[in-house]
């Protein structure tokens, strides 16, 4: 499980510390591990230096060997997190947590909403935001980490914030006339020096007809301030006292008037329970809430559900279907008809607004008439009427009072339940197939209901088989749903028809990105063509598309990333073909992928994790560009430019080794006339992937072809890399003498060209050949020199691999202490850069130490977990003497365990490699 990928690993600190991952909630029981978890969470994804962590956990200079203590503590924390251990990782500048402080982030978001609402004079919004923030507290903040130096400080800060939020809510309720006198009075008594709170209590008492008590409370405050602090009341308090004495009428609140109008209820609703609850709570008081979201997400359906529930106790509701209006000047007459106002000219708008006092006004489908809607909202604000407004729109109205609530897809469970109910299925019927269908339509309610409607003529399995043709398939919605909701295509058509030509063209062009895209990528790929789009115009055009809910935005380590839902992407790709621009745009995207590949081909250095992260984010785009290039005549040369420089990425993600190898084989077969150097680079990359998928003989042949081309070109750098690859292929074939000669050649050439990374690799493989020949002292010398070189150039991947090789040398010489140290350091480095195949290599070597210590069950468990991972990745162990060592260790363990061996294997099959690696790190560090 990888909690960093989807942001679902949450730490909550406003009460006893708890961790939530999806629907699972658990505690870290030991105090120090819990304090470490919270301190890492406070860094919000950034690394925390070891010295800072030690000071915050134990106090400045209060612990010996803080780095070693932290390493043990990190191991214990990962163990406590179990399947979620990967959330804690080593960042370049310290330890970090891939997770979020969910409750604290919610509070901070609501604080921003409170400040914005205060600037725009919206007490209802303040009240709702403060209530939402206060709801995050489950008890005293940092309740179980207060004994740490940092915990005490944070707890005090958050206690003060909690009181401020309570005061914000009570102040807003006072402005709305809904305050509970007893609550504010009790809070003021507990905080007798808090002038703001006491002032609220005074006004609440006055409004309740208790003027004498209100005046007495001001006198008590004056006396307490003088006695305890030696100060006078603030000017605000003195002014309040004068207003009480004058019986200022502005201290009271106005009455409201009703309107007898309600929205019609819709069909039964499935899902959206939290949204309904939140909206009902928010709309109890004056507010302007806009539901935004992509076509078919269910904005109208949710608004109808809320309107129906609001109307049930008798509150008036006015519903305007704005999609029926073709012009903005029709909004006000429609509102007048709905509110039964008979007037004209300048009197019409004020009378309509007055008639709405106390009501809920629902404005459905406002995206094409935003200006008159903004005028209406400003009139409501100017007249001070207590009206709640619920708007559905592709994009916000953008008035100061507006609270925008984006609507996303249904949860997986709700989507399946909606499909099953609309099909008349039971909860256990066709759940997996239903999930496939719902996922294909982005779990959007409209598309799910349209798909369910097809069961009149198709089976659920037949729908699933055809769902990729979603735009043509999903038609025939209910007549009562209205034209926009009659088909998936119609819903998207309505949204896209409101775009100008440049907006439509950009939407079509960015659809070539299969895995999302950055602004820079869009500027490079989507500019030009007809209609011409300037690169400088793309940012505002993307902002407009996002406002209209046609593209998504997520915040990732590389910055903001844009994306399209699959249904909208299908629609946009059809538009790209119709525009006549598909070939040009796809070529530019493939060229952009090739530039990315060239930029990321130097792996293993200090920026290795950044390169892996960038390629991981763009993996879907790289694969899409490769597939298009292979399938389009005359474009296969682009595959060489994309896949060859990134071969190391496909190898390190073993599940893709065979696929990437086959891409290059196909492209080389098509592009026989490719430039010689491009062909040689591709042959070398194909050799590496072929070897690492288990075919050393095939890799040898490919490598020799590449070497011949590089030599004919006089390309010493290319020759060096290829000689290294040929050396590894010979190591895999146990041809150690040949491998040694190739290793020496590669080392000499690497020194000549002055390429330290290649020199380190050449020294490492030469050491492997010496080890295979039994020349262990010479192998150790080579490996040690390589490690020093890797350290100088800060290449953690090379360092880890060579340390692993040293570990095997020391095992063979019987120096198990040094073997243990080298393998520990190698495993730590591989965990830091998250290289799965490297982790597998090292844990298999650790199994040898376990056998030497007589821990046969542990050894066999390690080999079982590692072996299963190799099978899953398609990445077999290829170096002959390493394979022999592994087989000997397994044989020794099985021999010692006898019949129990099969029991150990069976019990270990489902164990996590990550958890195993962390356990071994802890034991190796002990």
TrEMBL record:
TPR repeat ranges, renumbered to this chain: 800-833
Protein keywords: DNA-binding, TPR repeat
GO-annotated biological processes: phosphorelay signal transduction system; regulation of DNA-templated transcription
Residue ranges constituting the AAA+ ATPase domain according to the UniProt record: 285-429
TM region positions: none
Superkingdom assignment: Bacteria
Residue ranges occupied by any OmpR/PhoB-type domain in the UniProt entry: 23-97
GO MF, one annotated term: DNA binding
DNA-binding as UniProt keyword: yes
InterPro entries: AAA+_ATPase, AAA_22, BTAD, OmpR/PhoB-type_DNA-bd, P-loop_NTPase, Sig_transdc_resp-reg_C-effctor, TPR-like_helical_dom_sf, TPR_rpt
Gene3D superfamilies cross-referenced by the UniProt entry: P-loop containing nucleotide triphosphate hydrolases (3.40.50.300), Tetratricopeptide repeat domain (1.25.40.10), Winged helix-like DNA-binding domain superfamily/Winged helix DNA-binding domain (1.10.10.10)
Domain Bacterial transcriptional activator per the UniProt entry, residue ranges: 102-245
Pfam families cross-referenced by the UniProt entry: AAA_22 (PF13401), BTAD (PF03704), TPR_12 (PF13424)
Family: Belongs to the AfsR/DnrI/RedD regulatory family.
Name of the featured protein: Tetratricopeptide repeat protein
């Amino acid at each position: 499980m990888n909690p960093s990928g989807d942001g679902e690993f949450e730490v909550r600190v406003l009460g006893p510390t708890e961790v939530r991952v999806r629907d699972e909630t658990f505690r870290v029981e030991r105090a120090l591990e819990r304090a470490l978890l919270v301190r890492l969470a406070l860094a919000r994804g950034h690394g925390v230096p070891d010295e800072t962590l030690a000071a915050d956990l134990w106090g400045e200079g209060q612990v010996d060997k803080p780095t070693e203590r932290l390493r043990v503590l990190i191991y214990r924390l990962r163990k406590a997190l179990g399947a979620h251990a990967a959330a804690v990782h080593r960042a370049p500048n310290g330890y970090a947590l891939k997770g979020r402080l969910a409750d604290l982030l919610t509070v901070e978001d609501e604080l921003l909403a409170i400040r914005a609402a205060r600037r725009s004079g919206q007490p209802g919004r303040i009240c709702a935001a403060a209530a939402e923030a206060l709801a995050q507290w489950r008890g005293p903040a940092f309740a179980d980490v207060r004994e740490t130096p940092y915990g005490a400080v944070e707890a005090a800060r958050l206690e003060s914030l909690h009181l401020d939020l309570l005061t914000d809510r009570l102040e807003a309720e006072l402005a709305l006339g809904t305050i509970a006198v007893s609550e504010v009075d009790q809070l003021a008594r507990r905080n007798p020096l808090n002038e703001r709170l006491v002032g609220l209590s005074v006004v609440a008492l006055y409004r309740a007809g208790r003027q004498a008590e209100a005046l007495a409370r001001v006198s008590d405050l004056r006396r307490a301030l003088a006695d305890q602090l030696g100060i006078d009341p603030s000017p605000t308090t003195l002014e309040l006292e004068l207003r009480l004495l004058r019986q200022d009428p502005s201290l009271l609140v106005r009455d409201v008037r009703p309107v007898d109008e309600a929205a019609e209820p819709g069909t039964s609703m499935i899902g959206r329970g939290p949204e309904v609850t939140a909206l009902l709570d928010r709309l109890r008081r004056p507010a302007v809430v806009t539901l935004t979201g992509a076509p078919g997400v269910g904005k109208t359906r949710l608004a109808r559900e809320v309107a129906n529930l609001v109307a049930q106790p008798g509150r008036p509701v006015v519903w305007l279907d704005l999609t029926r209006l073709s012009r903005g000047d029709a909004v006000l007459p429609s509102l007048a008809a709905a509110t039964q106002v008979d007037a004209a000219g300048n009197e019409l708008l004020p009378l309509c607004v007055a008639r709405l006092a106390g009501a809920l006004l629902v404005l459905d489908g406002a995206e094409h008439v935003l200006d008159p809607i903004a005028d209406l909202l400003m009139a409501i604000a100017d007249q001070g009427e207590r009206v709640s407004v619920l708007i559905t729109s592709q994009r916000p109205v953008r008035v100061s009072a507006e609270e925008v609530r984006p609507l996303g897809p249904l949860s997986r469970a709700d989507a399946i339940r909606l499909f099953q109910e609309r099909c008349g299925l039971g909860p256990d019927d066709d759940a997996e197939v239903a999930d496939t269908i719902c996922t294909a339509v982005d779990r959007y309610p409209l598309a799910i209901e349209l798909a369910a409607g097809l069961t009149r003529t198709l089976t659920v399995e037949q729908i699933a088989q055809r769902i990729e043709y979603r735009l043509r398939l999903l038609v025939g919605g209910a007549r009562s749903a209205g034209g926009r909701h009659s088909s998936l295509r119609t819903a998207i058509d309505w949204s896209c028809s409101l775009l100008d030509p440049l907006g439509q063209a950009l939407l079509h062009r960015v659809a070539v990105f299969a895995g999302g895209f950055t602004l820079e990528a869009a500027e490079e790929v989507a500019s030009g063509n007809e209609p011409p789009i300037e690169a400088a115009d793309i940012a505002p055009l993307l902002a407009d598309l996002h406002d209209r809910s046609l593209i998504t935005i997520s915040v990732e380590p590389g910055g903001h990333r844009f994306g399209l839902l699959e249904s909208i992407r299908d629609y946009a790709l059809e538009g790209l073909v119709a525009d006549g621009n598909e070939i040009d745009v796809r070529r530019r995207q493939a060229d952009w992928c090739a530039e990315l590949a060239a930029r990321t081909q130097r792996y293993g250095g200090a920026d290795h994790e950044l390169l892996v992260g960038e390629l991981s984010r763009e993996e879907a785009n790289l694969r899409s560009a490769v597939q298009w290039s292979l399938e389009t005549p005359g474009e296969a040369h682009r595959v060489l430019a994309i896949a060859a420089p990134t071969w190391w990425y496909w190898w390190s993600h073993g599940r893709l080794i065979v696929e990437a190898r086959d891409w290059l084989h196909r492209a080389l077969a098509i592009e026989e006339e490719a430039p010689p150097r491009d062909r040689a680079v591709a042959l070398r990359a194909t050799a590496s992937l072929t070897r690492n998928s288990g075919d050393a003989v095939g890799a040898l042949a490919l490598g020799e072809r590449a070497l011949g081309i590089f030599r004919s070109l006089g390309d010493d750098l290319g020759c060096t890399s290829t000689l290294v690859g040929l050396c590894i292929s010979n190591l895999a074939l146990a041809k150690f003498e040949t491998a040694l000669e190739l290793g020496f050649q590669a080392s000499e050439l690497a020194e000549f060209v002055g390429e330290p990374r290649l020199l380190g690799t050449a020294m490492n493989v030469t050491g492997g050949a010496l080890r295979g020949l039994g020349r262990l002292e010479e192998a150790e010398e080579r490996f040690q020199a390589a490690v020093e070189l890797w350290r100088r150039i800060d290449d953690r991947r090379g360092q880890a691999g060579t340390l692993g090789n040293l570990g095997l040398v020391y095992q063979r010489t019987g120096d198990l202490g040094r073997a243990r140290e080298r393998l520990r350091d190698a495993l730590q480095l591989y965990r830091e850069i998250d290289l799965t195949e490297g982790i597998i290599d090292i844990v298999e070597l650790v199994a040898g130490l376990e056998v030497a210590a007589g821990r046969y069950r542990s050894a066999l468990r390690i080999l079982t977990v590692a072996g299963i991972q190799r099978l899953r990745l398609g990445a077999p162990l290829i170096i002959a003497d390493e394979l022999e060592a592994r087989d000997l260790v397994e044989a020794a363990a099985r021999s010692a365990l006898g019949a129990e061996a099969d029991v150990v294997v069976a019990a270990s099959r489902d164990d996590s490699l990550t958890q195993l690696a962390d356990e071994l790190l802890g034991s190796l560090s002990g």
